[in-house]
Structures are given as C-alpha cells and as structure tokens.
Amino acid sequence: MISQVERDLSIQIRLPETPHTTTPSPQTSPRLCRTRSKSSGQQPSRTFAHRFSWMLLSVLLRRQGILLFAPLIYISCMMFHLRTASLDASPIIHRRPAPGSVYRSPQVYARLRAEIDADNTTADAISTIWKRSYKGVEWKPCVMKSTGVLPDESNGYIFIEANGGLNQQRTSICNAVAVAGYLNATLVIPNFHYHSIWKDPRSQIFFNLSSPGVVNSAKPSLLQLLSESLTEGSPCSKFGDIYDEEFFVDALANDVRVVDTVPEYLMERFDYNLTNVFNFRVKAWAPTHYYRDSILPKLLEEKVIRISPFANRLSFDAPRVVQRFRCLANNVALRFAKPILTQGETLVKKMKELSANNGGKYVSVHLRFEEDMVAFSCCVFDGGNQEKQDMIAARERGWKGKFTKPGRVIRPGANRLNGKCPLTPLEVGLMLRGMGFNKSTYIYLASGPIYSANRTMAPLLEMFPNLQTKEMLASEEELAPFKNFSSRMAALDYTVCLHSEVFVTTQGGNFPHFLMGHRRYLFGGHSKTIRPDKRKLAVLFDNPKLGWKSFKRQMLSMRSHSDSKGFELKRPSDSIYIFPCPDCMCRRNKTTTAAT
C-alpha cells in the first residue's frame, strides 16, 4: 500500500494536467515501490535542509522557466556552503625554495674561487669567439639617400618632444624624421623633455676603481668618489649639445626639411608660445595610416602641430619608404656632437692601447646595477636589512606609491626565476670567466653609479683586474664638460662600447638594443654581442653542487648561442633599430667579394 507521503510526492512531480482530462496517472512500478519501502525503514528522519531542497526542486520542475536561474542558485549554494564550512586550516608546510629563486652567487664564488684562480687557460677567447656567418652571406650598409628634389611646398611644421634617456630620445628623433618625410612636413629640431629618473643635469655619484693599467694620483679614492654627489644647476642638454645639428640637417637635406624654429608669421597666431599649438596625443605604436588619415588633415589646416610625448609613437611594421627614413636618420644623420665624439674616440684609443697584447681588442660590459635598477627589479641581493631599507626608499623616491598599491605583491623569487633580476658584478665576472675570458682581458665597464660598489664590485675586480671605466681613462678636467649630464656621459659609454670586439648586455633596455643594431650595421650584420640566458644562470648559481668544469661547459654553450644569434633578420613587429637587416643593409656575398 502506497503511503500518503509517497502519494503526495507523486502528485508534486507530475506535469500539470489539462483541466478537462480525467485520465488517471499511471501507477508506480512495483519494483520501485519495493525498493522504496525496503529502504524507507533505514533512512533517518529528513532534516529541514532536505525538505527545503525537495520543495525547491518541485517548484523548479513545475516552473521550468526558473531553470534559467539554476546557475545562479548553484553558485549561491556553493558560497553558502563555503561560508559555513569549517575554517580550520591544516598546518603550513614550509617548502624548499624553487631552484634559482634565491641569490646564492657569493656562496658559489667562494666554493669555486680556488678552481677559477688555478684555471690558467691561455686560449684567446676574445679573438675566437665569433665564428658564425649568415648562410655564407655578409651584409653591408645600404641606406639610399634621395637624389631627387623635395616638393616645392611643405604641408606644415611638426614639433615633437623627445622624452626619456639618451636612446629613447634617439628613437623619438628617428621616428619624427620618418613621420615628417612620410607626410611631406618640415621637422622642427626636437626638444628634449626629461623624466625624473633620467633628469639632466643629474645628481650623480661616480666611482673609480684602482687598476694597475692606469696611474693617476690626482684622482680621489674610491670611498671618496662614492660619497661625493655632484650638484645640479646647469641648463638641460639641447639637441645640439648631444648631436651634431648642422650635420643632421645637411644629411637629410634631400629627404626631409629640418629647421631650428617655426616661422614668426605662424608663431604670431599662437602668441609665440608653442604650448598653445594644437597637441596630438598619439597612442603607442600607431600605424602609418593613422598619421595619414588623422594627423595630415589637421596639419594642412593648422600648418603647425605638436606631438608630445613622442616616444614609441610609430609602429615598427611600416612601409619600406618609412623604414628608409628611419635608417637614414639613425645610421647616417645622427652623429654625436664634436666634443662627445672627440672624447669618445680618445677613450676608444686608450682602450685599444691598453689591450695591445690582444690585438687592441677589448670587451665592453653594460652593467645595470644602479640603485634605481635594483629597486625597480624588486629582487633581493644578500644585502640584508640595509638593502631592504635602501630599496624601499629608492622605490618611493622614483615611483611614488607604485609599489605600495593595495594588492601589489612583490615576489623576488619569481622575478629571479623569470630572468628579471639584473646581473650583479659578481655574476658577470663568473659568467665571463666561464666563457673563457682570462684575467688579462681588458674590460670597459659602461655603467652609472653601482649600488653598494665597495662590496659588490670587489669580486669582479678580483677576476678581471684590468677593468676600466671612463672615470679611470680620462682626467677630471676631460670629463668636466660631461659629468653633470647623464645623456652626455651615456654617449661616451655608447661610443666606447660600439667599437669593442665583444659587447655584453646584462639587463636589456634601449642602450643595448641600439648598440646591437648599430654594431650589426658596422660589423657585416653580426651584433658581436653576448646576451646571457638569465633564467638559466639563476638556476646554475643556485646549485650547491655546481662544479667549475660543468659550469664552463654551460657558459661556452651560452657563448656559442650568442654567436649563432648574432645574425638575425627583422620580422614585421621587430625594431628596425635592433635588426637593421634587410631594411638598412644589402647582401654582400663572400665568394663574390673575394673574387673581385
């Protein structure tokens, strides 16, 4: 006999009947009845939650449209369950840090130092490092200047502000030349706008490292130079202070009009104030058709426009005619001003004289271990509480509030594993010794003020006592016209690095990227640059069982990889300033050259 409860339930799950039908519902299967009756005696009394769930299910079946809200109901139930569940946490398990997430390079150096000192390798690494060529083909500079005549009338004047450091400004200048040439506009000599991080003039701390190759008793001690700060107050650098302005204008004469100022009759409309000129806020990496469709009509209407800021405001995937303007500006028209060029060539000459035993060949290293770079990387470098406090203060000075926003989590270990930590002077020394460069190698160090230089630079000097800097190669009087200006000092470093046999980049950025492209342009398409795999190095330097011979094998493999990647062709989205082939260079077959 079917109980009253079962009868009620069967009525609840029945589909609605037509009002006029009298057909009885089919009887429940006997097997189902037996199963229900058999189990009914074993079930405990239903709880309120069970009854409520059953009633809710009945309503949903009766009102099938409500099923649309089923996902929402499910999520609500899950949240209710999680809220009422027990919050008793299991004991925290302290796992060993992932290999490569902790800075242990000093321990590795202490363990390997005896083997490094005993390794008297005489192989001439600096002369045998570059072996590769690109499929039997070399490249030669091939920037075609226009032999025609510019149109009689310009479409108007374009004024841009080049922001950032030396090479970010260089990007802006080259892109401005390309835009002006593309729009048949007249380019006004760019104005330099300085960011707080790249301020110029700068408050700069220099360091000097004693070396047996240089004798200059007039120079103060290392500790003195590290504690001295140069005062600001000189005027900011202008275009002509860094680049040869007359040469720039002449080199572009047949391709792009370049003038010093906007004509007076136009400036009169704007009360002789360029800030009153219409300013375009161009999005980053804007395509060329944006300039044609949006900027050109306004240029024709106003006859003078301003674009600020202008860094990275032109896509690298541009037509060949635009790329030609870029090549012409970067590789031909932009030449350092005579004072910088002369002093830079003097430094190069001194480096070649010092490294005469290696055929005048030396290694240049772009070391990014300044305090602001260490702070921005959010990495930890065994400096203890003092380093922690220094980095907090540096981040607040340079990027007020950026690193203390709610929800911002700094993960030094993850940064190191991802290769985002700058290499320390110690790590650079270990890497170069592993690649076969011995103690007699002359190294030029291009850098700003090294963080905690007394402590961090000591191991590098032990491994390479012939290390040089611009402050060591030149007297204070020779550097006086440049030392208050970060861009001019960077230009000196750029010149010495450009002419080195080997260039080592340790952190990326505009400086090494431009250098790699410029070196490819000068050296037959090969960048002659060592680009370390920092992810791999992080794991190696965290290996407590690392042996010297094993480490050398890994470093020689990394060196070979840099050699093979020296020749690379530009892909559509790549920077033409890093990969000048094939837009700025032409193929030159080796066999053909030899035959002629």
Automatic annotation (TrEMBL):
Family: Belongs to the glycosyltransferase GT106 family.
Keyword Ubl conjugation belongs to the record: no
Extent of Low complexity compositional bias: 16-30
Top-level taxon of origin: Eukaryota
UniProt protein name: O-fucosyltransferase family protein
One record GO biological process: fucose metabolic process
MF term (GO), any: glycosyltransferase activity
Pfam family, one: O-FucT
Lineage: Eukaryota, Viridiplantae, Streptophyta, Embryophyta, Tracheophyta
Keywords: Carbohydrate metabolism, Fucose metabolism, Glycosyltransferase, Transferase
Segments of this protein annotated with the region Disordered: 13-44
Species in which this protein is naturally found: Cardamine amara subsp. amara
InterPro entries recorded: FucosylTrfase_pln, GDP-Fuc_O-FucTrfase
